[in-house]
């Protein structure tokens, strides 16, 4: 169970007032997370999950997981399994796992109640005709010619709809409210439609299914939900939510809907439809591609649930929509990982270093700290010998201004080992650098008095004889802004793979283990890893101390 995090927001202010006035008597505060199982959840859903579950925890209540499975055309068991894995990964456990379809019988009876009260009617308009007669924001809609059917006729037609007498789209059941309402959602909305589709939970029992705006308040009321927390796009639907509960009239203390601003993040797309298209078209490797903003994707990317919960707490809960910089999410991930993972030496674009004055048959074990900020993590022993690999970014034949790493004639500290001076650059016939010939100062081994001598640069390295060759998957944002249009578009360089060398311990890494690649960033061992080759995904980078000016 996740730790309870104290959050101050307007939703909690409402709940505090309801508790003071005993609006719900002695009932516990009960929230719900109601996903539709038509795709994988994304980071935006994580905010809703955290808000609903953590609110319940704050008030010593509970939260249900309820699947909004009122549209059987789009729903799959794969999505259900992924949703439950996501909620558990975030650190939460629901009180009950429920299905909207469990209430189909009661929803049908509620619809009959509305018909008997003269508050619902069967309409023969198709979807296009309903749309044409709905009106605009400045013009009232036109009443359907079927609006004044008798109660008896409506009851008969609705029963015939249930029995399968009519084809899809041939008839609908509409609430009878007000075609002149300034809120278009109140202009006789459809509350039942015909769909001759088998349902994963109810099979072929039903060929009519309730619309979400009708089903949602009834589900909440049946379960005894006290506060139905929704994203802001449902604010205009709240009058219909309240209307359904009031007109059905079964619940003396019905739930109240409260809306909050949904999460928008820079360089991130939050549309299930768009994300599904990326998967279907092969633009990404799948729903759990580490570039995807799905919870499955960020989990495989290496984000931690603690970091995601921290992010959701930091951004708070607002009533107005806004966009959060993705850097804030990355900062939460970085803050969490820096105190929990060990460092490892890894080099990309490797350059061979030969220490010409170091004995050829000698290998030393160097003690290197696992995490400078957490001394309790101790040291590890890393082999060091005459031939090493250094990172391509740590050498410049013609150094830039304020470049203190390796270049001809310069002395640098090889972290945890010795001071080395670059003496000669060896190139092949094509002019490419093949080797760097260096000398070392044997009196400067790390931990000795000689190592106290000052040099400006420190670089990492990997012993060539024992190095593990690894595959590195460096990720950039999946979406980038087009300079001309200002719109987000797919980033063609969102994944750059490279091969590199790592110290021997990384050859033992297991999928899911996280490390800091020294001076590179945080990485996680991916599920693609095998005994023959370890694969690492970049989680988040570090702030670089040097950038070449272009």
Task: Explain what you see.
With 550 residues, the protein is α/β, with parallel strands linked by helices. The strands form eight sheets. The chain has a seven-stranded mixed beta sheet. A seven-stranded mixed beta sheet has the order 21-18-19-20-14-17-22, with no helix packed on it. Strands 4-5-6-7 form a four-stranded antiparallel beta sheet. The chain is built from twelve helices and 29 strands. Mean pLDDT is 93; it is low at 1-8 and 544-550. It is elongated and about 100 Å long.
Rg value: 31 Å
The low-confidence runs, each spanning 5 or more residues with pLDDT under 50, are 1-8, 544-550
DSSP, total strands: 29
Give the biggest sheet.
7 strands, mixed
Summarize the structure.
The chain is α/β, with parallel strands linked by helices and 550 residues long.
Question: What attributes does this structure have?
Answer:
550 residues, alpha/beta, seven-stranded mixed sheet, 12 helices, 29 strands, elongated, disordered N terminus
Task: Describe how the helices and strands are arranged.
Layout (H helix, E strand, L loop, with lengths): L9 H11 L9 E4 L9 H16 L3 E6 L9 H13 L7 E3 L4 H13 L3 E4 L3 H6 L18 H13 L8 E4 L14 E5 L13 E3 L1 H12 L3 E5 L6 H11 L7 E5 L3 E2 L6 H9 L14 H7 L3 H11 L7 E2 L1 H12 L4 E3 L1 E3 L2 E5 L7 E7 L9 E7 L1 E4 L20 E4 L4 E9 L5 E9 L16 E2 L2 E2 L4 E8 L3 E3 L6 E3 L4 E8 L11 E4 L3 E5 L8 E8 L9
Parallel strand pairs: 1-2, 2-3, 8-9, 10-11, 12-27, 14-20, 18-21, 23-29
Antiparallel strand pairs: 4-5, 5-6, 6-7, 13-26, 14-17, 15-16, 17-22, 18-19, 19-20, 23-26, 24-25, 27-28, 28-29
Helix pairs in contact: 7-8, 11-12
């Amino acid at each position: 169970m996740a730790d309870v995090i104290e959050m101050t927001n307007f939703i909690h202010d409402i709940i505090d007032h309801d508790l003071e006035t005993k609006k719900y008597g002695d009932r516990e505060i009960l929230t719900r997370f109601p996903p539709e199982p038509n795709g994988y959840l994304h980071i935006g859903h994580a905010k809703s999950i955290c808000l609903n579950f953590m609110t319940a925890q704050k008030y010593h209540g509970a939260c249900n997981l309820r699947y909004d499975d009122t549209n059987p055309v789009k729903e799959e068991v794969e999505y259900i399994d992924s949703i439950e894995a996501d909620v558990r990964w975030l650190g939460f456990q629901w009180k009950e796992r429920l299905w909207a379809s469990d209430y189909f019988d009661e929803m049908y009876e509620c619809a009959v109640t509305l018909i008997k009260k003269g508050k619902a009617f069967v309409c023969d308009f198709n979807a296009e005709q309903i749309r044409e007669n709905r009106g605009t924001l400045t013009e009232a809609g036109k009443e359907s010619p079927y609006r004044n059917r008798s109660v008896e006729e409506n009851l008969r037609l609705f029963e015939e709809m249930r029995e399968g007498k009519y084809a899809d789209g041939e008839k609908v059941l509409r609430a009878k409210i007000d075609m002149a309402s300034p809120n278009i959602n109140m202009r006789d909305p459809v509350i039942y439609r015909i769909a001759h589709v088998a349902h994963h939970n109810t099979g072929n029992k039903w060929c009519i299914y309730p619309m979400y705006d009708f089903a949602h308040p009834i589900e909440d009321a049946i379960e005894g939900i006290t506060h139905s927390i929704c994203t802001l796009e449902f604010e205009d639907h709240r009058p219909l939510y309240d209307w359904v509960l009031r007109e059905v009239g079964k619940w003396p203390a019905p739930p109240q809907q409260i809306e909050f601003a949904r999460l928008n993040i820079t360089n991130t797309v939050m549309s299930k439809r768009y994300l599904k298209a990326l998967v279907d078209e092969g633009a990404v490797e799948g729903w759990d591609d580490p570039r995807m903003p799905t919870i499955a994707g960020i989990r495989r990317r290496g984000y931690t649930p603690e970091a995601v919960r921290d992010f959701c707490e930091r951004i708070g809960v607002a009533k107005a929509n806004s966009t959060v910089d993705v850097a804030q999410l990355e900062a939460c991930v970085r803050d969490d990982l820096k105190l929990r993972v060990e460092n490892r030496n890894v080099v990309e674009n490797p350059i061979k270093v030969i220490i010409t004055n170091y004995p050829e048959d000698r290998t030393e074990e160097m003690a290197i700290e696992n995490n400078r900020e957490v001394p309790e993590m101790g040291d590890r022993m890393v082999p060091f010998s005459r031939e090493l690999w250094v990172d391509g970014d740590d050498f410049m034949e013609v150094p830039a201004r304020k470049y203190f790493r390796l270049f001809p004639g310069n002395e640098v500290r090889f972290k945890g080992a010795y001071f080395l001076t670059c003496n000669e650059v060896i190139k092949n016939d094509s002019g490419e650098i093949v080797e760097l010939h260096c000398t070392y100062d044997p009196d400067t081994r790390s931990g000795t008095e000689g190592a106290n001598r000052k040099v400006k640069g420190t670089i990492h390295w990997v012993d060539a004889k024992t190095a593990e060759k690894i595959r590195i998957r460096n990720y950039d944002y999946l979406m980038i802004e087009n300079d001309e249009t200002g719109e987000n578009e797919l980033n063609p360089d969102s994944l750059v793979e490279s091969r590199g060398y790592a110290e021997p311990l990384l050859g033992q890494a297991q999928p899911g283990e996280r490390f800091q690649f020294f001076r590179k960033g945080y990485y996680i061992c991916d599920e693609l890893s095998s005994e023959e080759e370890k694969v690492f995904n970049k989680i988040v980078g570090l702030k670089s101390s040097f950038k070449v000016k272009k």
